[in-house]
Backbone:
């Protein structure tokens, strides 16, 4: 499939080549697919709704919720017959007790002051047999200074030990994983990760070549990437790995949980 076919229409899913962050975020929804099949699902803090677009063909029904009116307006483009978008605050979700099968909460927890309240609300609306799939940055990797995240939009970033303690007040953790780029991706697309690369000549040369490619006009860059590597220039959702072994050092930690009885 060439570039023109990938970019027909306005579907958010087809725009992954435009953002270095797309693959990292989309990979979490791909990870969630086996757990949402045939289920009633909430994608909390859904933003522009790309997650709803990625999940809707697998679920019985998926609803995206957000507090940003502009994002909700954009997200409605992704909604279909078995999906919807609502205005919803994670601390006061518009659902009854035990109404949902699965909640996807990706990169949300770190933005809130009342994180305990959010987790309590998640447990309230989940069925006893339900699942919470949650991701948040790993403080072992991001290294907040005196507890203050370097990302100005984050209130608190957890170490895996801290996240485990917070989650287990409400949930049983079934899997606790780190999310990392596959080893086949030699140069990560993120500035912070590039700063951590080895300083040997080979790595520096590859980084220089990556930066040259990154500055090319979009169409030229993607045509060359297709010709040389047979894939988009930026990593896709297939280029990320979820593993217990990397939990201590991964940029992102992912927890699969069930409500405590």
Residues:
């Amino acid at each position: 499939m060439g570039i023109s076919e990938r970019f027909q229409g306005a579907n958010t899913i087809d725009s992954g080549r435009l953002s270095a962050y797309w693959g990292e975020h989309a990979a979490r929804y791909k990870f969630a697919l086996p757990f949402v099949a045939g289920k009633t699902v909430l994608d909390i803090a859904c933003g522009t709704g790309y997650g709803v677009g990625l999940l809707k063909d697998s679920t019985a029904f998926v609803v995206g919720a957000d507090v940003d009116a502009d994002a909700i307006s954009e997200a409605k483009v992704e909604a279909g017959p078995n999906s919807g978008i609502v205005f919803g605050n994670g601390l006061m979700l518009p659902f009854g007790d035990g109404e949902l099968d699965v909640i996807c909460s990706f990169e949300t927890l770190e933005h809130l002051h009342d994180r305990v309240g959010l987790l309590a609300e998640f447990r309230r609306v989940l069925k006893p047999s339900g699942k919470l799939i949650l991701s948040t940055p790993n403080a072992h990797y991001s290294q907040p200074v005196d507890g203050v995240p370097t990302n100005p939009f984050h209130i608190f970033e957890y170490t895996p030990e801290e996240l485990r303690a917070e989650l287990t007040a409400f949930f049983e953790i079934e899997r606790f994983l780190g999310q990392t780029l596959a080893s086949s991706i030699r140069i990560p697309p993120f500035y912070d990760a590039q700063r951590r690369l080895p300083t040997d000549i080979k790595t520096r040369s590859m980084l220089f070549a990556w930066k040259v490619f990154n500055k090319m006009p979009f169409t030229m860059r993607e045509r060359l990437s297709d010709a040389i590597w047979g894939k988009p220039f930026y990593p896709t959702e297939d280029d990320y790995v979820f593993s217990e072994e990397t939990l201590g050092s991964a940029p992102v930690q992912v927890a699969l949980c069930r409500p405590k009885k």
